[in-house]
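Worked example 2:
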Amino acid sequence: MTTSRCIGILGSGQLGRMLAIAAAQLGIDTHIYAPDAAASPAASVASRWTEAAYDDLAALNDFVASVDVVTSEFENVPAEVMQQISAHCPASPGEAALRIAQHRVAEKTLAARLGINTPRFWPVTSATGLDGALTELGGDGILKTCRLGYDGKGQRRVASGDDASAIFDSFGSDDAILEEKIDFAFEISCLVARAPDGSIAHFPVSQNTHENGILARTVAPATIPSSLAEKAQQATAALADEVGLFGVLAVEFFVTSDDRLLFNEMAPRPHNSFHWTIEGCASSQFTQLARVLAGLGFGDTSAYGRWQMDNLLGQHMQQVPDLLASNGVHLHLYGKPDAHTNRKMGHATRQLPES
């Protein structure tokens, strides 16, 4: 078995931080590469870091030469960078996975092609196109940027009959998607790890609550019929296989009141809704990714009971003293200096009593 001695991580946020911590527990070094690496959550726990732009070819080549495998902690690293890296060393999640996950139309088109149900959607590149899409919509919808939107950013609620020209002119993007607004009962997410040989390992399904477009709470394993969980996991595995994933893939789904499953979005990286696995599974999502990257095989992903994870945003930091004093609470702070409103500063996990 070949073991990677150093994992290179593109990006310097909390996901890179928690991956570096998990890798260190396995005796694996990490090297952070990011434009803001010096004063970042990840750099403070990594073995080393490089602060440089993603298009700095000289710095990128030096970085690649110093590691055995590279992964990205966020999906918006330029796909061309991943392509360049993959010519010199194994790269996770892979160029194809990144390109698909970077564009909302591309990922929904892929899901639909694989027979995975999605909300109705229309690509929007002009005011005329938006006007036609709103007419076909025949109700309420959400206009989203195709790229770079996260945590509710780059979105606007719209409806048939709205002034398409005014909306399009003020939206700020000519690469958008109109999605029908779904009256869903709740949201779930799946996470699968996939090795280069195509073998996979699933985590239990998470059930999520969002507030203002940002994940507020996850409870896992989700209290849903096993048939629904299996269907969601099968869809996630199909997506991972189709893009040739190397690493982990998270997929969010809407669940309707009649138990219909609708694809929402995917991310080829660790996911906020699986932070509970740090305490809740023998191999957390971060440990699992480190194992896959290092060629160590899959770890045990079964859950130790049921868990609740609550995000701590900037406006929640006054809760920290009480959380520190609470029995059974596992507090994770990300080391970010400025507690801005809606900025993810940490999370708290606790085991739920058996029902």
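Residues 6-92 form a domain with the Rossmann fold fold (CATH 3.40.50.20). Residues 226-242 form the longest helix (17 residues).
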